[in-house]
Write a structure and sequence with these properties.
about 600 residues; alpha/beta; 2 domains; eight-stranded parallel beta barrel; five-stranded antiparallel sheet; about 15% strand; elongated
Amino acid sequence: MRKALILWIMLAGWMQSGKLQAQNTSDGQAEKKQSRIEVVWQSLFKPDRDTAVRPAFPTEKGIKDKLGLIYNAIHSEEFERYSAVQDSQVQDWLDYFRLEDKQVLYQSPKGDTLVIANNVKVFGWHPFWMGEAYKSYNYQLLNYVSLFSYNLNTAPEPNIAYDNPEVVEGWSNPNFKLIGMAHEKGCKVLITLTSFYKSGNRQFLDNKSRQQERLIQNLSELLVKLQADGLDVNFEQIPAGYELKFSQFIRKLRTSLPPHPAGGNYIVSVVLPKLNQYQIYQVDTLQKYVDFFILTGYDYHIGAKMPPGPVAPLFKSEGSIEQSVFHWLEQGVNRRKLLLGLPYYGALWSTTNANDPNWRDTSKITFQHIPYWRIRQQYGNRREPPNYNIESWTANYTYTVTDSIGNPVRRETLYFDDSTTLNAKFNWVLKEGLGGVGIWALGYDSGRKELWSLIDTLFAPSQDTIAVYHPAQERFYLPQSLSKYRDVVAVGSVFLVVFLLAGFVGALFDAAVRDVFFANKTLRLTYIMGGFLFIAVAAVLYYYLKVSEDPYASPYTPEQLLTRNRLVVLAVGIISGILITVLGTALFERRRKRLP
């Protein structure tokens, strides 16, 4: 018995050390050291894919290194850049971009009969810095246009729900015609709610000054005032550990909005990053309150510190649209609710070190995003066509700029999407049976018709429904399956336990079995360890199913059960192990005393 107790104490210390290591990691660090129990949990609950069918997503460490810090970077980057430009009193955005003479409305050869198929959605963001470019949008080819953006004021003071009044209040200007033009063609108008910083999100989700109630009240009034149709929620850098609070906010937002004046409810969509890092997005819960999700399938390579690469690679060994989509499907997102956001822009890397083929000298590298219309303007007249990569389905140019006497001055690489690569990605969306596509951003193709024509060809057929796609096989994901079939699992587990116990007790009536079992130290230890593992796993499963069923009835999420409450599992294991050890040893000693 003494040896058994020592064994349990050593096991407790081994598992607890993982908790202490995780607690010593500061809040500001990008990565948290996983405890041993989390590693075991992930190996059980995140099974590898069949690589013969689909390429495996990178390892957890690889994912975090490559995608963990890449959120919807272009959203916040361009919002901040053009907000600063707007503060300098820009009067006309089209004039600022020199696009005044390029606003040409795409006219479909289908004429007034043009309509998007009813089993796909086409969503586009209209950023405020595109000004009156909205006058060139073909709203018959769009299901949703979202005004970007209503930027959240996360602080309690000043007592106003947004911090960019020049944008939000500009939507009420009689000269702003987008909403009326969209509604005239049957296109719904949403408002994108943005919050880009971890500290602000933490303050807002804590809701200590009732910022959420202030926001929902203002949004409810604004939706009615603008005659808009819903909200698009784009939160970036949600802190780890705030998954439940974010789900509660989405639930509160959905249930607190008034009914739509035309009947029914306002639409609510949520923008997703490439990876559900730290399980921030509780998919099973969010799907109850969200009409659809938009996955940002762009900015996979970004910044001067990252070597040039595809902005939106469709297929790739590490980090691609395909892997992100399958990641979210395995998380439990309904494929018909998942829209794939795609870029109408490119990324340009430039280095003044023309003799640095591997782009290692980051001090000489500059990086910038370039909208599609400017790419066509600057590179469309080149003699050679762009290079196409059929693995990533992206276009690129790589060239060296020389001075007047032919000496290399700088080397540039540009990755972008055009009608050829977007055609492959749009068709892939249809093939996989996803809900549709999103566009970042409308107006970035200003003066070009080929991208509107592509949407027209693929998403607006003569029939009402696009039937030529083959939805991919649903992937098995254990947490989703357990939650979905919790009743079956519970009943099956009860029968399993009852029959196991009945069989074991029945076997003990045989004297030979009793002698072998109680006299054999290995069998006793096996029984004790089996009992310990069964009770520990049963406790975890019970809490998981309990919380999955109604996350609002419990202060803990399934993930928090392991990441924040390891002591629950640890205590259950230790106590049950000690009890089983004591009970088993007592029975054995009693049996021995009865022997002649």
